[in-house]
Amino acid sequence: MTTRTCLTIVLAAGEGTRLRSSRPKVLHEVAGRTLLGHVLTAVKAAQNTVISVVLGPEHDVVSAETSRVAPEASVFIQTERRGTAHAVLAARSAIEKGADDVLVIFGDTPLIQPQTLQRLRTALADGAAVAVLGFRPADPTGYGRLVTQGDDLLAIVEHADATEAERAIGLCNGGLMGLDGKTALSILERIGNANRKGEFYLTDAVKIARDMERKAVALEVTEDEVSGINTKAQLAATEATMQQRLRQAALEAGVTLVSPDTVHFSADTKLGRDVTIEPFVVFGPGVTVEDGATIRSFSHLQGAQVGKGAIVGPFARLRPGAKLEENVHIGNFVEVKEALIEAGAKANHLAYIGDARVGAGANVGAGTITCNYDGAAKHRTDIGKGAFIGSNSSLVAPVKIGDGAYIGSGSVITADVPADALAIGRGRQTLKEGWAKRLRDIKGLIAKKA
Ligand code: UD1
Ligand code: MG
């Protein structure tokens, strides 16, 4: 438990063109959460931290995402892209407020973990003026190289400025940095731009700290913690790593994944104890599955809550606002949207339940449709407790079916049905005795003549 205060500056001025997308880079998603969202979530996990996000000049949408994920964060704009140190100084007024630790992290490194940020802070608490994260990529081309002597970090040399000997160094700069709050500003202010790119390099902080006779250290981490995303291929690879982490966490929490590699999670998927997930299930954002529920194969869930002991699927679709109470059964080819399905209710085959309530213990027959949309507005369907909706019924909303009522199969229900009544809304069956035989006889005669 640290009592040290921390300012975390997230750099997200971003370039993004290599993703070949009109969307800013940090708004691309991994496990249903934006890259920036992942970074801010990791940052928020730390104690006593205030957050500043540095954005480029035209990034209203990034700003909106920042306030959605971290409403407490301050946003600063770097109007000209003149290097990482220049970007950090865009948040100068936040630095001037004085925090014990200053962390600088990049908005495109979604796999960074809170414990890694804590390692940087621990190094600062132990007396370092600058702490950086080092990693050993298979191909170090393009990265800053960490020049070390024993435990001491002497300098970071950017690839473009490195000598042949320096380029042979395998330990690279992950980009994320911790700065002692007491000296952060004076170090940042001394950084110049006398280098190949003419940029203000944050990495020069190391050499300056050493010139001030302060300590700089490098902490080694695995490549995925610090790998930034510049291409769609890297985005996909990051997704794969994130999914591995989420599956592992689910298994460790006691969830049964019959075939882990085939289940796709969102970063915010919440799973209770003794939940079973069958192969090939996709969780979009905002899903909670409570204890003992089973999600069967090929189901797609998003923004949904699944109660204790419920069974969903196979081939079910739960859309935002689907709330299933205890022991509900939602079977194959059933879609539920913005609907409360009360305890023990069942819709086992081929149905659409949208903008509705289905009362406890009700049975919704195969092929039932809540006709919620009239082309202009959405309307609600209310199905009472223990009601029985016969197969292939259309419930034209707004409409109420009372507790314990019955709906005859194939009905189109356009008016409310009182409790315990039977409603039948379909053409009455007519019977013509012998009609089929007569038809066959006539056809036979015609065939003979031909
Ligand atoms: C940086 C590091 C390098 C490290 C690498 C790791 C510096 C000088 N170099 O290089 O040592 O190995 O990351 O990936 O820090 N940014 C701004 N404004 C700017 C410039 C950058 O906000 O004016 C942001 C970018 O959006 C990005 C981050 O800072 O999130 C890093 O910038 P980038 O240009 O990717 O630096 P690299 O050349 O990759
Ligand atoms: Mg980069």
CATH superfamily of the largest domain: Spore Coat Polysaccharide Biosynthesis Protein SpsA, Chain A
What's the shape? elongated
Number of folding domains?
Answer: 2
Distance between the termini: 98 Å
Poorly predicted residue ranges: none
Q: CATH class of the largest domain, please?
A: Alpha Beta
Radius of gyration: 31 Å
Please report the total strand number as a whole number.
Answer: 33
Ligand kinds: uridine-diphosphate-N-acetylglucosamine, magnesium ion
Which whole number gives the mean pLDDT? 95
CATH topology heading of the largest domain: Spore Coat Polysaccharide Biosynthesis Protein SpsA, Chain A
Instruction: Give the structural class.
Output: alpha/beta
Major pleated sheet = 19 strands, parallel
Q: What is the percentage of strand-forming residues?
A: 25-35%
Q: What is the number of helices?
A: 11
> Which CATH-level-2 architecture of the largest domain?
Alpha-Beta Complex
- Overall helicity: 10-25%
- Quaternary state reads single chain
Topology:
Layout: E1 6-12, E2 29-30, E3 33-34, H1 35-44, E4 49-55, H2 60-69, E5 74-77, H3 84-89, H4 92-96, E6 101-106, H5 114-125, E7 128-135, E8 145-149, E9 152-157, H6 164-167, E10 172-180, H7 184-190, H8 205-211, E11 215-220, H9 223-226, H10 232-252, E12 256-257, E13 270-271, E14 276-277, E15 282-283, E16 288-289, E17 294-295, E18 300-301, E19 305-306, E20 311-312, E21 317-318, E22 322-324, E23 329-341, E24 346-358, E25 363-364, E26 369-371, E27 381-383, E28 388-389, E29 394-396, E30 399-401, E31 406-407, E32 412-413, E33 422-423, H11 435-449
Parallel strand pairs: 1-4, 1-6, 4-5, 7-11, 12-14, 13-16, 14-17, 15-18, 16-19, 17-20, 18-21, 19-22, 20-23, 21-23, 22-23, 23-24, 24-25, 24-27, 25-28, 26-29, 27-30, 28-31, 29-32, 31-33
Antiparallel strand pairs: 2-3, 6-10, 7-10, 8-9
Helix pairs in contact: 1-2
